Structures are given as C-alpha cells and as structure tokens.
Amino acid sequence: MKIFNIVGILSAVKLVITAAVLKNSNYSSGVSVHDPSIVKNGNKYYIFGSHMDTAYSTDLRTWKTLYTGVNEKNKMFSNLFSKSNYAPFSYVGKNSDGSYSVWAPDVMYNPKMKKWVQYFCTTSSFIKSNLCYATADRIEGPYTYKGTFLYSGFVSNTVSKTNLKAITGATDGNRYYPNNSYNYKKFPNAIDPSVFYDFNGRLWMVYGSWSGGIYILELNESTGLPKHNINNGNNTDKYFGKKIAGGNHQSIEGPYILPHSGSGYYYLFVSYGGLTSNGGYQIRMFRSKNPDGPYVDARGRQFMGGKNADYGVKVMGNYNLPGLTKAYMAPGHNSAIRDNDNKVYLVYHTRFNDGAEYHEPRVHQMFLNQDGWLCAAPYAYSGETISPTGYNMNDMSGSYKIVFHYHTKVNGDISNNYTIQLGKNYSVSGKFSGSWGYTARTNFMHIKIGNVTYKGVFLKQMDEAKSKTLVAFTAIGDNNDSIWGVKV
C-alpha cells in the first residue's frame, strides 16, 4: 500500500512537471514602429518605419530603438532639415497639424552605388506627396538626402515644382489634372515605396496608396532612380509606371514585393482598410511569375477594378488566440524577408483591443504550402523551425481552437475562436464538420470545411508567453480565406 501511494504521488508530480500550462501573454516587442520595413545586415535585423522611427533586433522578438521622431535632433539624416530650403518638403509643405510628415521608408544596399539607399516619402494630404531618396555608407546612417524624384497631386499652378515635364516632355498636363483637379482615382499617391531585385538582377520600386492604386517602376541600378522606360497606355504611364493593383480610390496601400526563388513567384503584399484599431486594416497577398505582374490571388484574379474585398488572399485581420490577453487589431503595412537559412518572415505593425491606438511591430514566420502560397504562423516568431518531415498522428489529431480570416470582411470585427476536432479517422467535427489529411514525410496538410479546401502546414511553435510548445496549423483556402488552428 505504501509503495502504491509513493508511485502514485511520483506519477502525479511527473504529470504536473511535464504538462505545461498555457499562460496569458504580456509579450511586448519593446518598441513602437509604424509601417516597419525590414532589412538585415550581419546578425542584426533593422526595421525602418514612419516618423523616422528605427529599431534593431538580433532575434526578431525583442527590439531596441535606434532613432525616433521627425525633428532635427534625429540623427538618421544629416541634412533632411537643411535650413536653406527644406528641399524634401518644398513641394508638399506642412501637413494639417502644421508639421512635416516623413513616412514609410524602405532601405536596401545597392552594390552598384556602393551605398545603403533609403527610399521614403513626404506628404501633406491624401494626394499631395513625393518620393525621395537618401544614401549612407552604413546601414545606421546618417543618411544624406539626395533628391526628390516622383510627385503626385499636382495641378496647373504646382506642376512647375515637379519634374513631370523633364521626364515626359509633356507641355500639357491635362492627362493628370483635367479641369485643374488631380485625377487621383486614376493616378497614384506617391507614398509607401519599397524596392527589390528580381531573379535576373533588375531593380524595381513598387509604391502607392489608395487613389489610383499600386504602381511599379523599374529603377536604374547605377543611380537608384526610375528609368521611365514605358509609354502611356491603359494601365501604364511614362511618369508613374505600370499599375498592378487597386484604383478608383479604394483602400489599398503599403505594397511590398518579396521574390522567392524557391517557389519561382513574386509575392505582392498590400494592406486594405483604415489603419486605426477599428478600421479593418489587414494584410492581403497576390503573386506573379513576373516582377511587374500580372499579380493574382488564390482564385486566379487580378485586382484591377471592382470591390477590394473580393480580391487578394487575406493573410490576417483582427484576431485572438489562446494565451493572448487582448486581441490583435488592424495588423498591416507589412514587409517580408527571406533569410539566409531560407526562413521567411512577415513583419507588420499591430494595434490591440484595448481602447487605445498604441501599436507595436510583430514578426511571424511564413511557410510555402502545396500550391506555392505563403502561410503565416498563428503566433509571433520565437525561434521555431518547422519539421521538414512532418509530425505523427498523435501530434496532428486532437482538439483545436481555429480562427478564420474571412476575405469578405474589411471592418473592425474580431474573428471568433471556434473549437473543432481533427480525428484520427481524418474527420473534422465540432463547430464545423469536414475532413482533413496530410502528405506523408512532409509538413503539408489540408482541411476541407464546407465547400472550401485549405492547404497549408502543420508546425510546432511556442505561445507568445513562451510557456508551452503547441501544435498548430496555418492554411490558405481556394476562396482567398486563411485559417489558423492551435491545438489545446
């Protein structure tokens, strides 16, 4: 009897030790950087954001501030606020608050120029903006402003302050401002630049926000400036480049293109909705075999007209997950990076369901599914590595909390958590019924609920409190929805 009790006590102790409890997360990245654009140098990751905010990290989880604030004391730039002419703001002027706006930078190393190049925008209204660039010998700067190279929002009495005539030779600007009003539903707002090299070593810049949509221009690698090598057409313009998405002043902004040689695709990320916590901000994804498109979604369609919600894979919107103390709200304006070990990371800012507008950056790992789409892990990155040979049935089967990211929603609703069971007989039961399966000796999985088939991967990752390793899945549907599952 005494032996039995001792064994029972020891077994109970062992159970307590091995069965970790999921704790509520108070995770903070340590910084607040809006519109984070990621770049890596050595063993450091940097995010450059709006308002001249910059931070760095070595683990993609904890960040430290490097620069912050639009003012002369910010040492990111050496001459942005030159007292002689304030050149970056000479066209746009001050914003409605009576201050200067410096937004949405993107930084890359240009080997031809042998410089770090920062592309950024200054703006004063929803259409009056310009794109600028600055260079530095070190990634941390200081950056020297070199010039302004693309303008939007001009009319007859302001076009002379731009380079439109010098680039196009046009003496009549009515194409851009009929009735002396900038045609913002057709032509872009010159903000949110991001740059990338294609598989053949050509340099490109994608940009735009709302207004006439997202445009792309090829850049001259030797100068870092646009080539302006296309003619005017239905969706092309010698000055602004080629339209690849959006238009008619629908919400779409923060474009970022990630080339992935492993899949052979270029992935275009954009954000829909308004950026406030209840504005429905969210991340969408398209892809193409060519750097300048056409970019299509999981239904094989381009967003060149119609309602924005109908187009684009919804990577994520507002959501809550087990262990989170407050829902993530308005995730968006992302960048992405494919690291030296081929891991892909999605970097974005998010607000929270706390009645405020405070925001922080987050990083989620992404994985290619069977169809070559990138699926985002449910929780923020904490160092996990997915098993290339997959997981066993005991790992994969069981009870899951799931979240749908419905593509039809561009609003402030928070996606509900539902409970389902993945049976060892490949059935789905609980809140929804259906079937599931996996590909042997891989991490690929699929789940069918209703008439929608989602394809993705199983993985193991820690909850955001880093209290427990969880089995999870992430998958993309053939209808542009995404689904996340966390085993509980």
UniProtKB/TrEMBL annotation:
CDD domains on file: GH43_GsAbnA-like
Q: Give all residue intervals belonging to the Extracellular endo-alpha-(1->5)-L-arabinanase C-terminal domain.
A: 378-485
> Which Gene Ontology molecular-function terms are recorded?
hydrolase activity, hydrolyzing O-glycosyl compounds
List of catalytic residues: D35, E253
Q: Which domain of life is it from?
A: Eukaryota
Q: Per the UniProt entry, what is one GO biological process?
A: carbohydrate metabolic process
Q: Quick one: which pathway?
A: Glycan metabolism; L-arabinan degradation
User: What residue stretch is flagged as signal peptide?
Assistant: 1-18
Question: Member of which family?
Answer: Belongs to the glycosyl hydrolase 43 family.
Protein's UniProt name: Endo-1,5-alpha-L-arabinanase A
Organism source for this protein? Neocallimastix californiae
Q: Which lineage? A: Eukaryota, Fungi, Fungi incertae sedis, Chytridiomycota, Chytridiomycota incertae sedis
